[in-house]
């Protein structure tokens, strides 16, 4: 089939796609005053941290704390199970390798093992001797919980950042237990770090009546420091009456002119809260945030309806931050800040200018090479190259892509790949022309003969881009996105646009020689 038989429908498709690309790329160069009149779906690309400035955090999930929390949970389950089964024990303690129970009567070993196995079906239960039981966590269960903790941490960090109202955040997992948080335009790293890094585990415990931290603690109780006065310890029961994961809403507000956080439980949490307050009228209910007592109000009457409020927080900003944390949920493990940095807007502006200068210089050199090497067809290749860049910018704007310095490098490389495709086509035309073929045959053979090589090089680039995106992180992904999208825009510019321009040239006059 003659490659110069280009239908009117194809010409119209090329024109429409090009105009759409221009339309979506336009917001990137229009002033803010003009962009405000555009539809909401026509918006410019977002700028990455290296271009816009902002905060960067590298966090690590404390995997060791996940194991300790798991053993602590096993201890409480074992205590409740043995109490319910009316099996006596002398000691119950958690160590690094498991939970050890020393029974009062050796003959209770078998029923104790049966009761604990029923309550903890996935745990290993062994008998080091006649009086002791050892409960340990299998490696597969431990690993599953660690994987789950990292995934949950990633999701909760994302929720907290979204609640904070940051636009275009970049939150992604790195390696086994690390999380990268990039917040363009945010210059409050300390507040962000406090909001993201706080575990925010909320629990409600009854205060042990008449107990004192100065005396021996009654069984089933623990010390919890006061959040406002860390030197003072409350004696609270270990049993969690209601957990913060039962909260469905938390909002900052005022009660009698004092900042508070109003909270609401789900149905199950509301029922548990109602039972607790009904049976403990006259006692104090301690509200613990990350094992510190932020409030310990006296229960004057049963609280039915699943709603209440937390006071003693501080100012309204602290109440808003606490409400944000409670709405987003508690982290399954503490987050350790391994690295933090703030990129100033001036540095970002310099990066934009440097990146733009590099792109312009690169484009000028490429355009100059093409025009010197291929004359008129070189100019057509430069036009196709410009359309390629505009289409790429339009696609990035449509999908809400984030432009970074590596992304600019990917655009420059896309220009090179686009020109490389035109070089293959033009060189094939030269060969056919030199071999004595007619002009029409040389033009047709150039597009048809070079298509396989053009497609092969772009597929190779696409595979490389996909692998970089899947295996890389941060800047590598920014480069991979523009590189991968550039494959599609380059193919369109080379296969459709360049061919359309050459055919228009062919049809607008009686051409006798190949202008390359």
Could you walk me through the main structural features you see in this protein, from its secondary elements to its overall organization?
With 516 residues, the protein is an alpha+beta fold. It contains 13 helices and 19 strands. It has three domains: 8-52 and 345-507, Multidrug efflux transporter AcrB transmembrane fold (Up-down Bundle), CATH 1.20.1640.10; 63-142, Hypothetical Protein, Haloacid Dehalogenase-like Hydrolase, Chain: A, domain 2; 198-341, 2-Layer Sandwich (Gyrase A, domain 2). The chain has helices at residues 8-25, 32-35, 49-52, 63-84, 109-119, 139-164, 189-197, 267-279, 316-328, 345-398, 405-434, 439-471, 475-507, and strands at 46-47, 54-61, 89-95, 98-103, 124-126, 132-136, 170-174, 178-184, 202-206, 221-225, 233-237, 242-243, 247-255, 258-265, 285-289, 292-295, 307-310, 335-343, 402-403. It is elongated.
Outline the biggest β-sheet.
4 strands, antiparallel
Helix proportion of residues, in percent? 40-55%
- CATH architecture name of the largest domain: Up-down Bundle
For this structure, what is the CATH class of the largest domain?
Mainly Alpha
Structure class = alpha+beta
Radius of gyration: 33 Å
Short description:
52% of the residues lie in helices and 20% in strands. It is α+β, with helices and mostly antiparallel strands and 516 residues long.
